[in-house]
Amino acid sequence: MPRPRLPLRFVLFAALAIGAALLLGLVVMTLNGLLEFYQRLVELPLWLRVPLLVATAAFAGGLGWLLWRLARPARHPAAAPVAPPVSRADVDTRIDHLRQRAVETAALEAELAELDRRRASGELYVALFGEISTGKSSLIRALAPEAAPEIDVRGGTTRQVGHHRGRLSDGRELILADVPGTGEVDGVVHEQLARDEALRAHAVVYLAASDLTRAQDAELRWLAGFGKPLLLALNKADLYDDAQRGALLDRLRQRYLAQARAIVAISAGGSERYERTLADGRREKVERDRAAELAPLLDALGALAARGTDALEPAREAAVLAEVGRRGDELARATARREAELAVTKYTRRAVVGALAAVAPGSDLLIQGALGTALVRELARIHGVAVRELDVEALLARVGLTVRNTTALVLAIAGNAMKAFPGLGTLGGGVLHAIAYGLVFDSLGHAIADTLADRASLDVADVETRVRALLAEPARERLERVARLALDAARESKSDG
């Protein structure tokens, strides 16, 4: 018969009692030891008592410091240093370099021209954002009556950025940029339009008609990341009663106090449609204008305008220059990839031709020194990376060893490539040797180009790893390209002979 088990609470109580007794015993022993130490210390002569007290105090202090270091909360890692702002001279230099490489830079130059034009105008630019049907067009009509943008109660009428000249309550003017909302244009197009106009503007107004959805929250925080003054305006506030409006504003302020410079409730007006029941029971559709109430937003915009565009211009200029610099860097990287691909193809063809011209081609696939050195140097020049002669020699020696160890594999792959082109096999073993040589150079060139692009240095170990992977499993497209180079070179050589 199984023995009954003790209830779990009794076991926990017993463990707690034992632990408390042990702790109490430890405290009593510690106090007793301290008292004995004190009595013996008092009996010592003064010349010995003082140094011992100092040593004890130093030990206790060191132990306390160590315990504090171990017990204190871990510090968060320091934030990465902010990249220094891009200067206009730096951006102009990058564009000049792109022109020298025959890169189309008209879009970058147009962005800089717009930057200069807006700075010279001295006008305040405010970008207006919001999802579809949040009332952006109605707000523009209220702030800039002369613009009279088309209003469609179905929503979704804005297809591109429009600029309208508005006026504040004190008579000062501003330029309103109406950015298409999400849902009005393709998401990628909207994001690019939004990014560009947020960068060009002095300030941003984000319009919402209710509490923010997850998508709106993400967009608002994204816009706040540009570092521009951001105003969050709750539109159609007249549709809520005082309690609802106050509660909604409180929630928005709790969530976006760090992102928005001001959070206000407004009514942009516009028109609304509703149905009403007549005395005879019939129902009719009615459209009426709603009165605009923009005072809180006008006050917030007026506070920005009071600072003057000179105070807001540095942040705007820095944002635009940073974006132009980023796009310039993307163009430079794309150009480097294109030029690197052309260089790899050029040297692969030279390797193939050299292999076909060899008097006694063998199975040894050592990198040809002159071609290999020239390939490395040209790729380094394309990517703007300085390389030393010793680095080039070390790279070719290491890759040469890798190629030796994979000679049989490379020759087998080259042989399979020959089967894809009828008639190649009848041209002799020189073609096999040429395809293998071409495959080595193609792999070496792509490995070096990728390493230089990713690491901005000639990392020998990384190049070797990439070469080994490219030789072990060459893509079909690469194999066919190299085999076609060998076939064309062989035919040219045969016709010349």
TrEMBL record:
Family matches, as InterPro entries:
GTP-bd, P-loop_NTPase
Every G domain range? 126-236
- List all membrane-crossing ranges: 12-34, 46-68
Which Pfam families does its entry note? MMR_HSR1 (PF01926)
Q: Which domain of life is it from?
A: Bacteria
Which Gene Ontology MF annotations are present?
A: GTP binding
Q: Which GO terms describe its cellular component?
A: cytoplasm
Q: Gene3D superfamilies in the record, alphabetically?
A: P-loop containing nucleotide triphosphate hydrolases
Q: Would the keyword Glycoprotein be found if you checked this record's keyword annotation?
A: no
* Any one GO BP annotation for this protein: tRNA methylation
For this UniProt record, the keywords arranged alphabetically read as follows:
Membrane, Transmembrane, Transmembrane helix
Q: Does the keyword Cell wall biogenesis/degradation apply?
A: no
Q: Which PANTHER family match?
A: TRNA MODIFICATION GTPASE GTPBP3 (PTHR42714), TRNA MODIFICATION GTPASE GTPBP3, MITOCHONDRIAL (PTHR42714:SF2)
Q: What is this protein called?
A: G domain-containing protein
Q: What is the lineage of its organism?
A: Bacteria, Pseudomonadati, Pseudomonadota, Gammaproteobacteria, Lysobacterales
